[in-house]
Amino acid sequence: MLAFVSVGLLALLSLSIPVGIVLFLLGFGIDQFFTPFPLMRGLGSMVWSTSENAALIAIPFFVLLGEVLVRTGIAARTYSALDRWVSWLPGGLVHANVATATMFSATSGSSVATAATVATVAMPQADRLGYDPKLFSGAIAAGGTLGIMIPPSINLIVYGFLTQTSIPQLFLAGLLPGILLALGFIVVTAFVCMVKPELGGARRTFPLIEMLKGLADLLPIILLFSAIIGSIYKGWATPTEAASVGVAGALAIALLFGGLNIRMIGAALIGTVKVTAMIMLVVIGASFLNFTLSAAGLSQELRGFLEGLGFNPLWTLLVIVLMYVVLGFFIETLSLMVITIPIVVPIVTALGYDPVWFGILMIVLIEMALITPPVGLNLFVVQGARRGGSIAEVMIGAVPYVLAMLAMVIALIALPDLALFLPKAMN
């Protein structure tokens, strides 16, 4: 059955069938060939029970928040302000790519939205200033992955929903690793550009008065992040309610900067509907597939396989990590999460690992999948914003940042408190 699922998944995805439909088709196949129960009779009830969960309401709100920020010119102001503060480092403007992605990750909740936002603003600067396209675009693709680590994160909401883990605890756990990973990207960029200065472009400095003026353009994002996260941890709002607070704040910022109009609101709402529909189709399809897999006994089969290896908990965890690295080459990230979580997380918790900690470890592995070919989604998003060149350049430029992510995986396994320190402190 495991072979049927693996081969079927790859075969259907290779036909360019939408991921959500693929998950339903696999569920139908398992129902027909591997289970003696009439599972199809429960399809309607299962779909309804999955989609009515209140925690999922946060998804369209966070998507709308990102759409509003993208379409109001706030991204350009943020990028310009951070350029003044970080372009003195080896690598110059490349650091502004990472810094801007980090700032927008703290509000958008989506890696794709973050990468698209920064790429749209940054790529014209690369052409104008003569930067090497490989490292410049690779930094944007890698920086965009922070959107699913630094809270608020749509993927962490999905993880919390599927595993019944506290979403506020997951948000806290992702904050420190997300910031450390952003700093790791900056260190990697500086190191690469010290070894090969021609990759980074000219280092630039700005008068102190200009740098201080630029802080005013960072203030809206900082206040928005503080309102969202602060309302959650002060107990004033649930993650879902905080998402609506974020949307209200984004609209207020848009009004302040003169970007609020009917056309912008209409475009943001249409974009939100499209992205939310895609996410919900994947989540519901995965829930149905997991329902059929459980009925067919795949969870027990996989557990038996891992236990049959005779490994201790650490080596079993490393096998699971390797599995995610390999699957990340071929499967879209949200799909990879929702397919594997109901199977893998019970095994990991049975080994004695904390589900909050494993959620953050999984997110790092999912981030890696966003910038590894052939299905790395952020690679295609950044390439779409470029005016020329091949996607191979983006892939090559992302390689140093993949190594930084592998270092973070090792650090999380060796030092679990990187993820658990803030949740424990809040408790």
From TrEMBL:
Pfam families reported in the protein's UniProt record: DctM
TRAP C4-dicarboxylate transport system permease DctM subunit domain location: 7-417
Keyword Cell membrane listed: yes
InterPro entries, per database record: DctM (IPR010656), TRAP_DctM (IPR004681)
Keywords linked to the UniProt accession: Cell inner membrane, Cell membrane, Membrane, Transmembrane, Transmembrane helix, Transport
Compartment list: Cell inner membrane
Principal subcellular localisation of the protein: membrane
Topology of this chain in the membrane: Multi-pass membrane protein
Residues spanning the membrane: 7-34, 54-74, 135-158, 170-195, 215-236, 242-260, 267-289, 309-327, 359-382, 394-415
Similarity comment: Belongs to the TRAP transporter large permease family.
Assembly, per entry: The complex comprises the extracytoplasmic solute receptor protein and the two transmembrane proteins.
Function: Part of the tripartite ATP-independent periplasmic (TRAP) transport system.
Protein name, UniProt field: TRAP transporter large permease protein
